[in-house]
User: What shape does this take?
Amino acid sequence: MDCLKVLLLFGSWITYVSAFKTISSQSLFLQSIKKVVETSDPLVLEEIDANLPDVRYRLHDPHLCGLKDCVITNMNICESSSTFNYYLECPHIVLDTDYHLQGIIGDMFVEGDGTAKVTLDDYVFKIDGKLERVECGGKEYARIKSYFLVIEARGNVCYDLKNLFDGKEQGKSVEFHEFANKNWKDLDKALRPPVFNNYMDLFMRKLNEELENIPIGGIFPELS
Assistant: This one.
């Protein structure tokens, strides 16, 4: 690659990076996200039905608790493309739910109906999103058009499922919990998408409801 191509590529990268700006702590957009985080504890869904390749589970009335202690970090915005990104860093969140489970996890067949608690420490949600301009009632405001979620489990995930195997095979229940809590990284990565995709969809709906109260110029003057 000749020097001219290197300079052009480097210049394009600088332009791309410089387009992103750190959002002020006083930004109404940031304040809106903080408000939704604080008022969404617990975040409650009616049901989550997951049909994965090797296992199916259904969660009834799942409650995600602990969001009020999460912190928004690394928040940036690209005004020209109306895109944004931020991290939601959660020191300790808990999922409490009724569950039905059946399938293969690891090398084990597992099934059960009961209550479950999953505790997640140092859990990070990384969100990249795009805003769009919407007009309603003679005013313009911004709303979340789309988003992409990446999760980083930095700490530990602990599973506690009551009444596995209908409470009849305690030895298998102990074996499963030992396996699950030893291999929590693999289980978390395999099982979490239906749970947190549903929760984040709900979170974004709540955020869009909050953004409806703020004229677009109050969030991003450049878009007004």
Summary: Strands lie at 20-22, 43-44, 47-51, 55-65, 71-78, 83-105, 108-136, 139-153, 157-161. Residues 22-223 form a domain with the Bactericidal permeability-increasing protein; domain 1 fold (CATH 3.15.10.30).
